[in-house]
Amino acid sequence: MKRKKSRKGFTLIELLIVMTVIGILSGSLLLTMGSSTDKAEATRIVTDLNSLRLAAGLYYADNAGSALSPDIERLKTYVTAPEKLSGDQYEFKEGENKGQWFVGCKIAAQPEGVRESLKKMAAANGLRNSVTSSDSDTYNGGTSGVYIRVR
User: Fold this and answer.
1) What's the whole-model pTM score?
2) pLDDT digits (tens, 9 = 90+) for 16-58
3) Residue scoring higher pLDDT (96 or 43)
4) Residue 9 class from Cβ within 10 Å (0-12 exposed, 13-18 middle, 19+ buried)?
5) What is the 3-state secondary structure (H, E, C) of 100-120?
6) Smaller CB count within 10 Å for the chain: N or C?
7) What mean pLDDT comes out for the span 78-90?
8) What is the Cα–Cα distance from 148 to 101, expressed in whole angstroms?
9) Residue 74 three-state SS
10) Mean per-residue pLDDT for 84-111?
11) Where do the structural domains in the chain lie, given as residue ranges?
């Protein structure tokens, strides 16, 4: 009579195949997560710039008749969560034409993926390379900074 062979575990080949499949899936997940974190960071920067732009409008309305001071710390009092805004990352600058003001974010330390995401969002959000009056100055992925016009 033939003896029945009982299996008590997986073979080495089966374990290697499962480990290979898990490795491939986790590798693709890491690639996907990396690009989504870059887009999330770019979205946070655009949201912060828009918040500071609105804060500058409120500051100007409260202090009508006085000069609009390029001080990020004063604008933070008009923002809902000022502790999330880094003072050394954001700046408030006067444009080349008198009466023009811009809020900017220094992005030299940001990864390439964040700058690429900002470049894709530039036209829809009014992002610029600098504080020039040129309407063709849409942000193009540069490393110095990204600006949005306040007024």
Assistant:
1) 0.72
2) 999 999 998 888 887 777 677 888 888 988 988 888 888 888 8
3) 43
4) exposed
5) CEEEEECCCCCCHHHHHHHHH
6) N
7) 75
8) 9
9) helix
10) 80
11) 36-149
Query: Per the structure block, which two tokens stand in for 50?
Result: 């828009």
Tell me the mean pLDDT in the region 55-68: 77
d(CA 77, CA 81): 9
Mean pLDDT (the chain) is: 81
HEC-encoded secondary structure of 5-66 = CCCCCCCHHHHHHHHHHHHHHHHHHHHHHHHHHHHHHHHHHHHHHHHHHHHHHHHHHHCCCC
**Token duo for residue 75:** 């604008």
Report the amino acid identity of residue 59: Y
- Classify burial at 86, counting beta carbons within 10 Å of its beta carbon; exposed 0-12, middle 13-18, buried 19 or more: exposed
28: amino acid identity, one letter: S
CB atoms within 10 A of CB 91: 18
